[in-house]
Every structure is written in C-alpha cells, then in structure tokens.
Task: inverse folding
C-alpha cells in the first residue's frame, strides 16, 4: 500500500510537472470559478446573518382605537399575552409615546410644541418568541391580533422583512444557479486538461497496458491530479476571498465603517471553507474521472 | 501430452467498414512452440496478434490463451493476461525521455515492484540481452537494433510464458536481425512460447520452426501459396 501511494504521488508529480502550463491554467480557471461561487456564498451568509439579527429585533406594534376606555386595556393586555407566539406585551400610553418621540427628536423636540399627547394613539409593543420572528410566522400572530376589534392598526415592518427575505432568497438562488454552471465548467475544464495530460502520456499508457499494469496503476495518478487541481483551486479561491474581505475594510470610508460595525461582515465559517475545499476536490476528481472514462480504456 | 498455449476456433474479425481482417481462423499453438506467422503486409498478422493480446475483440469465434477464454463476454482482467505475455512491436514503443534501464524497469514498477527491485531485475535482463554497458544511456542514443533489444528486454523482464512479436525485425538490418533472432531462439530454448509475425520469407526459411502462413485474413497452416497454388511448407527439425 505504501509503495502504491509512493508510486501514485511520484507519477502525479511527474504528470503535473510535465504539463505545468495546462495545469496552471486549469487551477487558475478553478480559482476564478470557485472565487465567484465563494463570493456569493459569503454575501448570502452575511445577509442571512443580518436578516437573523434583524428578525431578532422584530416586534409588532398594535395601535388601539382612540377613545378605548382604560378599563379595557388590562383585559386586552391579558388576552394578547396568551396569544400563541407572544413573549412579552408592553402598553404604551399616549404620554409614553410623546416622551419617546421627544427623545428621538432630541434637540428638535420643540417641533412637538403645541401637540397634545392625546393625538397619539395608545399602543401595545408586542415582543415575539424567537421562533416567531420571521416573515412567515409573524403573520400568524398578526392574523390573531387583527381579529381583536379594539386594534385600529397593526405594524411590524412587513415590507422590509419581506423585501429583505426575497433579496436573500434571490441571492441564494443566484448562488446555486451560477454555482451550478461554474461547477459544470470546472468539470469540463479539468476533464479537458487531463485529456491533454493523458494524451501527452499516451505512449507511456500504451506500454502500461502492454505490460499488464492494473487499471488502478494507470488511472489513480490522473484522479489524484484532478483532486490536487481542485484542492489548489478551492484553496486559492478561499485565500483570495479572505484577502478581498480584509481589503474591504481598508478601503471603505470611515463613515461607512461605523455603519458596518453595527452590521458585522464576517468571513465564512470553517465548516463552509472545508465544504468549498472538498467541493473543489470532488469536482476535480469528477473531471479526471470523466476524462479517464473517455480515453483510458484498457486496450 | 503437450499443453496448449493458444487456441483459436472459427475466429472472424470484420471491421465496421466491412473489411474482413480475419476469416475463419483455426489455430493451435502448443506451450514452448516457436511459430512464424508469415504473410505479406496487410494479410492480417497484426490483427491476429492484437486479438490474442485482447487489444481487439474478434467479431465471432472463440480464443483461449493459457487456458483463459478471453472472448467470453464480461472478460475484464486483460491486465492479468498481459502479465504472462510479452508484446514486442516493430516500432519498439520505448519512452524517449527515459534511460535504457528506466524503460525496462518501468514494466515492473507499474505492475507492483519497488523501484529498487525493478532496477535490479532490469539490469539483469539487460545483461541477458547484451546491453549491460548501455544501461544508463538515454534511449535515443541507441541504434535501432539496440532499441529493439531494449523493447525485447522490457517484454521479457516479467518472465512471460508467451511472447507475441509483431515484425520485431522489420526495421533492422541483416546483422541486427540475426542478433535479435538469437535472443528469441535462446528464449525458445528456455521454454517460452513465441509467435513471431514477419513478412520476410527469407528470415522464415533460415529457421526450422513451424510456419503458419496468413493471406487476406485466411490461415494456410502448414501450407504456402506459391504462384497461386497452396503448397505444403517443409520444415526441418
């Protein structure tokens, strides 16, 4: 076994060095393809993270009808608290709303001069359980709230949540469609380079067939070559993506940096990196397998 | 009773272009026999050897080599058959970027021997073929005769019991031909079965081995075509 591995590594090295230029071109193309795929993965990963963070902060505001007697507030609070998906409910009186607005306006709070708190509707600030903080589940809670006649309006930033969810879905879809096309291209390119390698080793392979080399001895070095091309391609793509990710923070204006601090753009987790490297290797292997099926038949 | 090394039973080979390369071949070669397969260029010699080495499948008929039914559907272990077979061709098929020893050792390395073991066995075989002093030379520095001897050494290094030689002296001058024939005769005397395809009748006549003539894909075993008539070939033991 050790001998076989030594033989395979030696032959693979000889094959790669003997066809260095086509090998470098193949690795280069794999790098570009994997870099595009990894970039989409990174974008989708960060946007999903951002969406999750945002969803954590999602809450529903249910505005009570003006003139709702204060005696009805407490029973309504109790009724709302027991709804499925509701974690916490806080009553915001018109006075609380006015104080909140003044705080928000800061030095421009004089804009509110002359406005009576009574014009602001009382409301319930409803925090949802974690599993309900997404665009699908939130609607279930909102439907239950809408059935309560004491509420005039219910807001939960649905447009933002839905738009953002669609954006993430589109990104993920693009990632897989584009990724799929690039992956097919990788298989095609690896397969063709290996056909070049095999072609340049034609005489050697013919002699191997003549003297009775087993199919493993003939084919495995080419499979390993494909694996190495995929590994190098995937590894370099990850490295370039990492450098791009780091460089992003060096060249963005300070004002945006402050904004980005609140939305951390993190790099891909180790698990995803391993998957990308494995994916590269599998594609390289598959490319060499296709090539060997086409031209390495025993004859 | 002598053991049969090769048996061909009603073997036909027709190419898709309807060219018939072999037609109703019936042949038996015994273990340890030296057989000349003689015929002009294009008569079917190479096709017959290619069928015996599994490089081509016959259109119909049965072929048994060393007890293995190689024409049976599903026969896949060609490499196992080839390990007991030495193939020598007119164009040598040597690896130009390697030395003489590396060319011979290559046959062993790719069939599971260690590098050291392969190198030693290759040296021994090159000594037997009279090339011990050229071992480390690049293959292109050798004459055609020497290159053919390297090809023979490579075919023999794994001690096959059957040698299929397709015009191995085709590119050699008279002196080199005798040189190479000496190696084959020596091998035959040691018990190796040899099927030697050639188009040179002069060469066939020099030796007293069995001659099988092939013409347009038909075997004329023990006979020859002379002025359009089939005649017996006299062999001297």
Result:
């Amino acid at each position: 076994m050790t001998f076989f591995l030594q033989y395979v590594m030696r032959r693979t090295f000889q094959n790669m060095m003997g066809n260095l230029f086509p090998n470098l071109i193949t690795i280069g193309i794999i790098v570009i393809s994997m870099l595009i795929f990894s970039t989409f993965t990174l974008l989708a990963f960060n946007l999903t993270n951002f969406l999750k963070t945002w969803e954590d902060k999602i809450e529903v505001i249910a505005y009570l009808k003006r003139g709702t007697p204060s005696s009805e507030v407490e029973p309504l609070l109790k009724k709302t608290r027991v709804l499925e998906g509701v974690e916490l409910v806080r009553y915001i009186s018109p006075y609380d709303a006015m104080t909140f607005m003044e705080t928000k306006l800061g030095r421009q709070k004089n804009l509110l001069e002359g406005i009576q708190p009574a014009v602001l509707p009382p409301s319930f600030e409803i925090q949802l359980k974690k599993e309900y903080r997404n665009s699908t589940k939130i609607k279930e809670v909102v439907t239950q709230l809408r059935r309560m006649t004491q509420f005039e309006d219910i807001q939960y930033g649905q447009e933002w949540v839905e738009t953002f969810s669609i954006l993430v879905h589109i990104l993920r879809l693009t990632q897989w469609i584009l990724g799929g096309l690039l992956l097919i291209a990788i298989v095609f390119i690896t397969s063709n380079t290996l056909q070049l390698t095999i072609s340049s080793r034609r005489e050697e392979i013919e002699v191997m067939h003549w003297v009775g080399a087993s199919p493993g001895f003939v084919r495995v070095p080419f499979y390993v070559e494909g694996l190495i091309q995929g590994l190098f391609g995937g590894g370099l793509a990850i490295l370039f993506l990492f450098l791009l990710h780091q460089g992003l923070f060096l060249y963005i204006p300070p004002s945006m940096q402050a904004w980005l601090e609140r939305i951390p753009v993190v790099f891909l987790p180790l698990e995803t990196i391993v998957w990308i490297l494995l994916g590269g290797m599998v594609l390289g292997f598959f490319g060499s397998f296709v090539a060997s099926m086409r031209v390495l038949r025993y004859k | 009773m002598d053991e049969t090394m090769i048996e061909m039973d009603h073997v036909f080979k027709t190419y898709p272009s309807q060219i018939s390369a072999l037609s109703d071949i019936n042949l038996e070669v015994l273990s340890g026999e030296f057989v000349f397969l003689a015929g002009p260029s294009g008569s079917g010699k190479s096709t017959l050897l290619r069928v015996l080495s599994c490089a081509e499948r016959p259109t119909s008929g049965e072929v048994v080599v060393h007890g293995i039914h190689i024409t049976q559907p599903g026969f896949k272990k060609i490499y196992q058959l080839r390990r007991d077979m030495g193939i020598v061709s007119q164009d040598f098929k040597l690896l130009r970027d390697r030395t003489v020893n590396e060319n011979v050792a290559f046959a062993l390395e790719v069939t599971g021997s260690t590098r050291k073991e392969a190198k030693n066995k290759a040296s021994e075989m090159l000594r037997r073929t009279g090339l011990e002093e050229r071992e480390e030379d690049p293959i292109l520095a050798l004459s055609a005769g020497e290159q053919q001897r390297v090809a023979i050494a490579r075919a023999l290094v794994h001690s096959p019991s059957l040698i299929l030689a397709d015009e191995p002296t085709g590119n050699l001058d008279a002196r080199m031909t005798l040189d190479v024939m000496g190696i084959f005769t020596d091998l035959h005397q040691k018990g190796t079965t040899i099927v030697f395809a050639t188009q040179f009748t002069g060469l066939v006549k020099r030796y007293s081995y069995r001659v099988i003539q092939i013409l347009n894909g038909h075997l004329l075993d023990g006979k020859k075509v002379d002025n359009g008539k089939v005649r017996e070939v006299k062999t001297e033991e």
User: Anything to note?
Assistant: Chain A has two domains: 2-54+162-295, 59-156. The longest helix of chain A spans residues 158-200.
